[in-house]
Automatic annotation (TrEMBL):
Keywords: Iron, Metal-binding, Oxidoreductase. InterPro entries: Oxoglu/Fe-dep_dioxygenase_dom (IPR005123). Residues 97-199 form the Fe2OG dioxygenase domain. It comes from the Eukaryota. One of its GO terms (molecular function) is metal ion binding. PANTHER family: FE2OG DIOXYGENASE DOMAIN-CONTAINING PROTEIN, MYND-TYPE DOMAIN-CONTAINING PROTEIN. It comes from Peronospora farinosa. Belongs to the iron/ascorbate-dependent oxidoreductase family. Signal peptide: none annotated. This is Fe2OG dioxygenase domain-containing protein.
Length: 243
């Protein structure tokens, strides 16, 4: 078996470098142009929620937060969500794989609302990433910050900087184990719908893009080692279930 990229011969750094170049993007985001403006968010005993949120609605939502379930009732929302996931799958390193989105929770952040740097837990079997969709919201602050190796990798403002946050839905995706934080909301209300992005049940142990030559290259490189040992530190934090 031959490989066109000669960097794999420089063990181990060539293979590692090749793998890093072919890895999916750590985080991405922007305007969710496949989604309708309004998800048709419906909360039991409250009805359909209008957007952007106003204080009176937020008070009612808080009062029902422990008892009322929420769901989107706009039939075009789920179709748009599937399309959004399909388009971004290749950028995550899963081109051609029918990734699935499962709604985890709906969050409302008011003035002072934030969370400190942390990692998400694996909420679903086969979960690979977290998708945050922000429907039209009027607020200041509340940026989602993604960290890598202790440094800021991405900062998602969900359309605040270009003035579209109140009029269009925006999204951010990050790997499930990525460290992230939410900066304090200084004014207004931020609505967020959080989804788990998962592999289909039959593909929970699927590797990334099957067109990669990296696994084969790694196998060849290891077979050529002579009485050598090495340690390869992984950049992701895997759960026992995922491994």
């Amino acid at each position: 078996m031959t490989f066109p990229d000669l960097r794999i011969r420089k063990w181990p750094f060539g293979v590692i470098g090749l793998a890093d170049e072919n890895a999916g993007e750590y985080s991405l985001g922007g305007q969710a142009d496949t989604l309708p403006v309004d998800p048709g968010l419906f909360v039991d005993s409250l009805g359909t929620i209008s957007l952007p949120l106003v204080e009176e609605q937020v008070k009612k939502l808080i009062a029902k937060s422990s008892t009322g379930s929420s769901r989107d009732k706009n039939p075009f929302w789920e179709k748009g969500l599937d399309k959004l996931t399909e388009i971004r799958a290749s950028r995550l390193g899963y081109k051609g794989i029918p990734l699935q989105c499962k709604l985890y929770k709906v969050l409302v952040y008011g003035e002072g609302g934030h969370f400190r740097i942390h990692r998400d837990t694996e909420k679903e079997d086969g979960m690979i990433a977290t998708l945050v969709v922000q429907p039209p919201s009027t607020h200041e602050g509340g940026d989602l910050v993604i960290y890598r190796y202790g440094e800021v990798e991405h900062r998602h403002d969900f359309g605040k900087d270009d003035g579209t946050a109140a009029h269009l839905p925006h999204f951010a995706v990050h790997y499930a184990d990525a460290e992230h934080s939410l900066k304090k909301v200084s004014k207004g209300f931020r609505l967020a719908m959080v989804y788990s992005i998962c592999l289909p049940a039959a593909m929970h142990h699927l590797r990334k893009d099957p067109t990669w030559t990296v696994p084969d290259a790694l196998s060849v490189a290891i077979s050529q080692m002579e009485n050598e040992s090495f340690a390869l530190f992984l950049s992701h934090h895997y759960t026992k279930k995922s491994i």
